[in-house]
Amino acid sequence: MKSATVVLALLALTSRPGPFGPGVMAGPKGPALRLAGPKGPALQGPTYTKDIAPLLADRCGMCHDAGGSAPFGLLTYTDVKRHAAQIATVTRHRYMPPWKADPENGPFVGQHPLADAEIDLVRRWVEGGAIEGDPRVLPAPRRRMEGWRLGLPDLIVTLPQPYTLQAGGTDVFRIFVIALPITKTRFVRGLEFRPGNPKVVHHANIRLDKTSASRALDDADPEPGYSGLILRSADYPEGHFLGWTPGQVAPLLPTDLSWRLDPHTDLVVEAHMQPSGRPESVQPSVGLYFSDTPPTRTPAMLRLGRQTIDIPVGDKQYTVTDSYVLPVDVEVEALQPHAHYRARDVEGDATLPDGTKKRLIHIGDWDFRWQHVFRYETPLRLPKGTTLSMRWVYDNSSDNPRNPERPPKRARWGQRSSDEMGDLWIQVLTRNEPDLVTLTRQFRAKVAAEDVNGYEVEIEKHATDTGLHDDAALLYLEVGRPDEAVAHFQKSLALKSMTGRSAPAHYNLGTALSVARRLDEAVYEYRQAIQIDPAYANAHNNLGGVLLAQGNADEAIREFREVVRLQPQSVSGLANLAWVLATAAQPSQRDAAQAIDLAGRVVDLTSRRDARAFDVLAAAYAAAGRFDRAQEAAGAALRLIPAEPLATEIRQRQGLYRQRRPYVASDPASKR
Ligand code: HEC
User: Fold this and answer.
1) Is the pLDDT of residue 12 over 70?
2) How far is the C-alpha of 102 from the C-alpha of 363, rounded, in Å?
3) For ligand 1, is residue 100 a contact (CB within 6 Å)?
4) 69 touches ligand 1 (CB under 6 Å)
5) In whole angstroms, how large is the CA radius of gyration of the chain?
6) What is the whole-number distance in angstroms between the Cα of residue 47 and the centre of ligand 1?
7) What φ, ψ does residue 40 adopt, rounded to 5°?
8) Maximum Cα–Cα distance for the chain, whole Å?
9) 48, 58, 64: which to mutate for ligand 1, most atoms within 8 A of CB?
10) CA angle 524-529-534, nearest 5°?
């Protein structure tokens, strides 16, 4: 039985501020008595105009500003004085400026914790009566608070119609879909998100959807945007995360790290909003900054985390861990922990091959509302063999003030904020492209294995969601568990059959069954699909493949001919037909001349870049007795894929051609 070369068609689914040292403490009014050095005793206490205003403008103004996320401004003496006592308290407790990671982590971009001396300065100013001081020394107001902080964007898009956030109730997660009016591919160096109503938008994630799937959900919802889950088709640009939290603007990327934006892509903005007590209008905008040149490096995004989270009621120390050993050297660019309300503490570590442990990040008082991206000022180098690890601790008791359930309820993994998550995203750069391929391939397998768990949880909650069953089945196929894929496609088929007959549902099931080597059942499902839709080329193609694997070359040829009749350009149809015509066991089934012609078309259609196409061409030449051409074609295939599993088979066939023997499917002489 030979089926390795049969090409299965794709499944039918689409599924600083300057360092503000302790200032020179001169008297506010009188003739400057600049006697004291920075450390010497001050003759008079600090004043607003000289000491406090510049400090607050640097560290607080980006949020405490008209139009900022904070509830009040801190840019005039009146405002600051009104909140003076509070300011002393929140700075002393390091509650403001908000920065959740331990101060010794990093250093990260935008990390400007107040120095002890600055906190003390604020305290002394408040205790000294919050004096205004000489208005003439007040620094000029900063312009950067208005407008775009990264400069004027190359493209600005705005949600066409504002969304009205209801006055009350709990947090709202809304997914807005914004079309991008670009007509050619662009390379993006930066993205600045403006929430439109910073008082209520608490954080946002921005993704790209190249399909119309997100837009269709938006269109189906009468209000702007839609509520529900992010689709799998809406994803971050490869290797990047595009998140926004108040006061945070990710700096422009170096041009060699930009990301690609193709026409017909929608921005998908997931906004987390908190009702304010009255209806609020929300109309986010996104500014994009382009680069003229395409990126030369692509980062990889690693995700540690578990989707088996299941926290019993009352558990105050529920712990989740995960780890991963780096197969190549990397530079860590950025980190983003992500969890929901019950999480209390997160640690990320790197344990080097020599056992040294480096703390990447620790947040001891996790707050869901500050979903920050921590970008290293200087990337952190980690050698191959380093273990990356994370640990989340949750408190699902009523002692946790942020517990969303009162009384607490069992909490399981899920995207909704009432569920729990526990991830640590790590953006890394590899030394070169081959290392990137090694890393992403290996990591993809780890992530898929974990995602499968998440799907099972979601499906338990939403058992009749056919999209979930289909996506889960695809993942099971990807991780090499076809029997589970069969079970989910069966369930999906049963659900879809309640509203009518679905050819794709039978087809998908057939595909999983054939991967599971349950060939008779696969044939049955493909025939069902074809009965519903006789022009279903992929179903004919895959049916042909299964028939061939069952040793039924005559019927396989009939199916492949049908594919080529329906779709004359079908690469898999042409390749499969050429293959049987070249290698069928019965001489009467073979037609070498036609096989050469068909295989030649496949080689052209795949731009001479597909190893299988050359493998088929080689077999066709050998069938015609043209062994030199056969060896040449096999050589071309091997140059394209020197190391993949298929290469071993091709090498064995090439050995036959060298002995001037054709490859015949069930000829014992060609069996290994
Ligand atoms: C990243 C944005 C951001 C920065 C920077 C920031 N704040 Fe805030 N601040 C907020 C938000 C948002 C609130 C509302 C309370 C909350 O959500 O925790 C707040 C609340 C406050 C409060 C009221 C706290 C309370 O108990 O209600 C004070 C006082 C305050 N900030 C002072 C400061 C000072 C002083 C600085 C600079 C040293 C600063 N903030 C920097 C966003 C910011």
Assistant:
1) no
2) 6
3) no
4) yes
5) 31
6) 21
7) -70, 165
8) 111
9) 64
10) 120
Amino acid symbol at 558: R
Ligand 1 midpoint to CA 69 (Å): 9
Q: Atom 43 in ligand 1: which residue has the minimum CA distance?
A: 63
Q: Chain-centre distance of CA 242, in angstroms?
A: 9
**639-666 burial, b for 16+ CB within 10 Å, e for fewer?**
ebbeeeebbebbeebbebbeeebbbbbe
Residue type, 201: V
pLDDT at 142: 66
Q: Does ligand 1 have an atom closer than 6 angstroms to the CB of 402?
A: no
The least confident of 268-282, 512-526, 620-634 is 268-282
Residue 546 CB coordination number (10 Å): 28
Summarised one tens digit per residue, pLDDT across range 128-155 is 999 999 988 888 776 554 568 788 899 9
Print burial letters for 341-358: b (CB count within 10 Å at least 16), e (below 16): bbbbbbbbbbbeeeeeee
- Tell whether ligand 1 has an atom less than 6 A from the beta carbon of residue 63: yes
Nearest to 209 by CA among 187, 176, 184, 239: 176
The pLDDT tens digits for 321-332 are 999 999 999 999
Nearest to 602 by CA among 636, 628, 626: 636
Q: Is residue 25 pLDDT above 80, yes or no?
A: no
- pLDDT value for 13: 40
Cα–Cα distance, 291 to 256 (Å, whole number):
9
Token duo for residue 593: 């001349």
Question: Residue 299 to residues 187, 243, 339: CA-CA distances in angstroms?
Answer: 15, 16, 23
The position carrying tokens 């068909």 is: 598
Of 207, 219, 216, 155, nearest in space to 183 by CA: 155
Q: Please name the residues in contact with 31: beta carbons below 8 A apart, sequence gap of 6 or more.
A: none
Task: Provide the 10 A C-beta neighbour count for residue 65.
Answer: 20
Determine whether the shortest distance from the Cβ of 97 to ligand 1 is under 6 A: yes
pLDDT in tens, 188-232: 999 999 988 888 988 898 999 999 999 999 999 999 999 887 887
Does ligand 1 have an atom closer than 6 angstroms to the CB of 247? Answer: yes
Q: Are 509 and 490 in contact (CB under 8 A)?
A: yes
83 Cα nearest atom in ligand 1: 29
Is the minimum distance from the CB of 62 to ligand 1 under 6 angstroms? yes
Q: Which of 254, 144, 255, 242 is nearest to 191 (CA)?
A: 242
**Contacts for 623 with CB less than 8 Å, ≥ 6 apart:** 581, 582, 583, 590, 592, 595, 662
Cα–Cα distance, 96 to 127 (Å, whole number): 19
For the record, the structure tokens of 378 come out as 């200087």
How many CA within 13 A on the CB side of residue 393?
11
Q: Is the pLDDT of residue 38 over 70?
A: no
CA distances for 497 relative to 306, 422, 466, 469, 491, angstroms: 34, 37, 11, 14, 10
Q: Using the mean position of ligand 1's atoms as its centre, give its distance from the Cα of residue 207 in Å.
A: 28
